[in-house]
Amino acid sequence: MLSEKKISNKMIWVSIDETTDIDGRFIANVNVGTLEEHRSGEIFLLNSDELDKSNHSTICKLFDKSMNILWPGGIHHDNVLLFLSDAAPYMVKAGEVLKSFYSKMIHVTCAVHGLHRVAEEVRGQFSTVDKIISCVKIIFRKAPSRLLLFKTEAPNIRLPPEPINSHPLGKLD
Fold it and tell me: Which residue numbers delimit the DUF659 domain (predicted)?
C-alpha cells in the first residue's frame, strides 16, 4: 500500500496509461515508482480515474491531482524526475506543459507504441500475408503435436519467435 512515508522525499517516476473500458469510458491509471540508486524502487498504482476525454489538458489535470494525492501537504515538484507515457500527440503535449511545473522532469515516450502503429499499417497494406501469418500461428499455437512434427520434418528451420513483452509496466493488452 502506498503511503507518503514510503515516498517521502525520494525521487520518483510517474507513468500514465489509458484504456477504454467495456462501456466506452476513458480510464487512466497513474503509476509511480521510487528511483533508487542501488536497487529497484517500489512501484505503486497511485490513481485510477475516468476522463471526460483524452487530451493534453485532462492528462495534465490528472497528473496534478495524482501528485496532490501523493503529497497532500504540498507537491514536491523537484522530486518528479521522469514521466513515462505513450507517444500519442496529446501525451507529448502534456509532457511539454508539465515540464514548466516540474522543471527537473524528463518526459520519455514508449517507442514500442510507435513501432506497433507502423506494424499495424504494414499489416493493413498486406492483408493476404497477414491472413497467412495468422493462420500459421493458429495452426501451431493450438496444436503442440504440429510443433513437434514441424521440428522433426524440418529440423534446420527455426520457428518464429513468440511475441515479447517490452512495455515497462507489463503487458499492453
Answer: 4-139
**What global pTM score does this model have?**
0.65
CATH of domain 4-109: 3.30.420.40
State how far the Cα of 67 lies from the Cα of 114, in Å rounded to an integer. Answer: 28
Q: Give the residue among 113, 114, 82, 111 at the shortest CA–CA distance from 98.
A: 82
The predicted-structure confidence for 2-51, as pLDDT tens digits, reads as follows 555 677 789 999 999 998 888 888 999 999 999 998 888 899 999 999 99
Cβ atoms of 28 and 51 closer than 8 Å: yes
CA distance 17 to 130: 28
Domain regions of the chain by residue span? 4-109, 125-172
d(CA 147, CA 150): 5
